[in-house]
Amino acid sequence: MTGIVLYPLICVAFFYLGSQALIMEWLWSKYPPKVDAFMSCPACTGFWLGLGCGALGWWLHIPFLSLDSRHFATPILIGLCSITWTPLLSNLHTRAMTYEHTP
Questions:
Q1: Residue 77 belongs to domain spanning
Q2: Contact between 86 and 45 (Cβ < 8 Å)
Q3: How many distinct structural domains can be found in the chain?
């Protein structure tokens, strides 16, 4: 059960850090135009972040749904699911941040 909560939250946190967070502006402000366009797309970036999180889950033995973390398809499935949940959760996060700063 922890994998279905943990993987989306980690993917969205890394997406936010790599593309919008002010604390990381020193990094993402220096992206070349093609990298910037890629990093601004939560679905594109989400797949690769999900694949990376799945690889991390492989090492930490964190299962996803009913798949064992050591199954070869688990990181790929997490990457494919990240195409959906990263845009949805990053939009929710951006709206919450905007709402918080609106007078």
A1: 2-101
A2: yes
A3: 1
